[in-house]
């Protein structure tokens, strides 16, 4: 897999395009350049083109793992209060606008982890996360049919690091494994290129292995990943990069919103939606989801511009082509951070996260205003 020599020459295999939301470059997501920060929305786009519609109330939870299998929305772990450092082990599924708890005694306690469905939905695999005392690179497997958790043997991750608030996406060829983009923490943060890994394995055999992946990715937290053709987009997670595109990385999106696509394309074609003159503020702990063949929807999060004192309720569309354009759909009723946004039953559904008053329990659908 990735050796140090391949890492040094990764530019021969991949190319990356970086779009900065600020004029100043910064070396860390914790650095601040207050005089270069800009408004989080384009003031030339005041119209509202979307609305939130509450369809259920479920568990109040934030910074949890989630995935969709056959239009069933699964969530696991997370925190239950704003200041909670002890992760939950609870698991729920959302079906027919009803939440059902499916927690079992062997369920791991995690927050800030990521979940993926594997083997055609037979298994849910959790990757990394916070166990209440440290970042971990552990892999757990939930057998969906038998409702049983298993701990997977997964060697190869550096002993001085762990994962939380990272992002994951499978490669198109499942034999190539899962791409994991930091945050890996601890001493690994001091390396220039230490935040990209490939996780290979078989959940049926409960065996995985970590390997470094030969691309250079700066440390980031609370970002999202979207695949488009042979490109991968990293959105947010740093104060200086809103969107970053890697070519030559054929990854696969697990949840795609298709039902809004034709309407959004028509709104763009008819100039109901006009490209933003300025990029939105960089943000973290947001959600993004591909829409159709060449669009993505980005919602919520905590912005780095210092102007929003509570989770964002902003909704954007970005075109994933040679020249990325951002479109402002306006604001919806709910601001969220550390939530989940998925496509299930032909609906764009959001659950949980931090809101103005704390951890939220609403499950709502996002609709376009036509």
TrEMBL record:
A GO term for molecular function: cyclin binding
Family annotation (Pfam families): Kelch_KLHDC2_KLHL20_DRC7
Signal peptide: none
Protein name: Uncharacterized protein
Organism: Adineta ricciae (Rotifer)
């Amino acid at each position: 897999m990735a050796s140090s020599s391949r890492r040094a020459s990764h530019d021969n295999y991949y190319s990356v395009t970086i779009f900065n939301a600020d004029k100043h470059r910064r070396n860390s997501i914790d650095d601040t350049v207050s005089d270069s920060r800009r408004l989080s929305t384009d003031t030339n786009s005041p119209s509202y083109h979307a609305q939130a519609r509450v369809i259920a109330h479920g568990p109040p939870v934030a910074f949890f793992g989630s995935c969709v299998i056959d239009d069933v929305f699964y969530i696991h772990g997370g925190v239950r209060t704003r200041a909670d450092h002890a992760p939950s082990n609870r698991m729920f599924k959302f079906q027919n606008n009803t939440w059902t708890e499916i927690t079992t005694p062997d369920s791991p306690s995690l927050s800030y982890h990521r979940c993926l469905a594997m083997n055609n939905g037979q298994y849910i695999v959790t990757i990394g996360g916070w166990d209440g005392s440290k970042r971990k690179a552990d892999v757990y497997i939930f057998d969906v049919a038998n409702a049983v958790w298993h701990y997977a043997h997964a060697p190869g991750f550096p002993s001085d690091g762990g994962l939380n608030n990272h992002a994951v996406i499978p490669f198109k060829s499942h034999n190539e494994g899962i791409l994991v983009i930091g945050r890996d923490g601890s001493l690994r943060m001091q390396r220039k290129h230490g935040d990209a890994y490939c996780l290979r394995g078989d959940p049926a055999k409960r065996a995985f292995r970590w390997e470094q992946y030969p691309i250079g990715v700066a440390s980031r937290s609370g970002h999202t990943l979207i695949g488009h053709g042979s490109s991968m987009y990293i959105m947010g997670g740093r104060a200086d990069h809103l969107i970053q595109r890697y070519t030559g990385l054929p990854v696969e999106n697990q949840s795609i919103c298709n039902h809004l696509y034709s309407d959004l394309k028509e709104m763009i074609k008819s100039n109901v939606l006009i490209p933003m003159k300025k990029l939105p503020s960089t943000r973290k702990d947001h959600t993004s989801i591909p829409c159709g063949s060449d669009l993505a929807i980005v919602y919520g999060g905590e912005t780095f511009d210092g102007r929003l004192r509570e989770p964002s309720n902003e909704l954007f569309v970005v075109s994933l082509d040679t020249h990325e354009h951002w479109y402002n759909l306006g604001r919806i009723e709910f601001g969220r951070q550390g939530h989940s946004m998925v496509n299930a039953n032909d609906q764009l559904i959001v659950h949980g996260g931090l809101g103005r008053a704390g951890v939220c329990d609403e499950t709502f659908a996002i609709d376009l205003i036509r």
